[in-house]
Specification:
By secondary structure, this protein is of the alpha+beta class. The protein folds into two domains: about 80 residues, Arc Repressor Mutant, subunit A; about 90 residues, ADP-ribosylation fold, CATH 3.20.170.30. It is about 35% helix and about 25% strand. The protein has six helices and twelve strands. The strands form four sheets. It has a four-stranded antiparallel β-sheet with strand order 4-9-10-7. The radius of gyration is 17 Å and the shape is globular. It starts with a helix and ends with a strand. The model has no long low-confidence stretch (mean pLDDT about 90).
């Protein structure tokens, strides 16, 4: 199980940030050939993977980070790319009244100092409609987690654009601190 987690993290690295590490030909939406991914991992890393293991990693991922195309010939990460030319496939629509952003108390200090939740090196700020998933994101940093409640509907009314990924992650360019309506420091 530990090795599967390590391979999953490595998949994220390749599919979100560094496709060149495994010589992957990625299209503008982040899709790569499954065969090329398997071959690239086996040639350029310490890991050995086959289609069965890849299918298992994708189906076991609690966040639904990965997507296969209908024929399972291509794979991508749904969001979180730092590759400047990748355009995440989003469904642009009206967000729910509130969304939640998982982060850390240390990052919250930087957010308040800068005046906004920034996308940093990624394409967008990520939020969840489900507060539990936001806590899951906040806890992954192994620091003091915090979940911020965002007045998303008010933001949309004020002209901010929202898109949602296939795995239900809500994205926007930035969130000014005036739209943070609650800061939760514990579950």
């Amino acid at each position: 199980m530990k090795q599967m987690d390590e391979i999953s993290k490595y998949l994220c690295l390749l599919l979100r940030h560094q496709p060149d590490k495994a010589e992957l030909d990625m299209d503008k939406h982040g899709w790569v050939s499954v065969e090329q991914l398997i071959s690239g991992i086996n040639r350029h890393s310490q890991y050995h993977i086959d289609r069965t293991m890849l299918e298992c990693i994708v189906s076991a991922d609690k966040k639904g980070r990965y997507r296969f195309d209908d024929e399972h010939k291509k794979i991508k990460c749904c969001q979180g790319h730092s590759i400047p030319w990748v355009e995440p496939e989003l469904n642009y629509c009206e967000p729910p009244e509130f969304l939640y952003h998982g982060t850390t108390t240390k990052a919250l200090e930087a957010i308040e100092e800068s005046g906004a939740i920034k996308k940093m090196k990624r394409h967008a700020v990520h939020m969840q409609a489900d507060i539990g998933k936001a806590w899951q994101s906040a806890e992954r940093w192994h620091k003091t987690p915090v979940v911020l409640k965002i007045a998303a509907s008010e933001m949309a009314h004020d002209g901010y654009t929202f898109g949602v990924t296939e795995n239900e992650v809500w994205c926007t360019e930035e969130v000014p601190v005036k739209y943070i309506c609650e800061r939760g420091y514990s579950k």
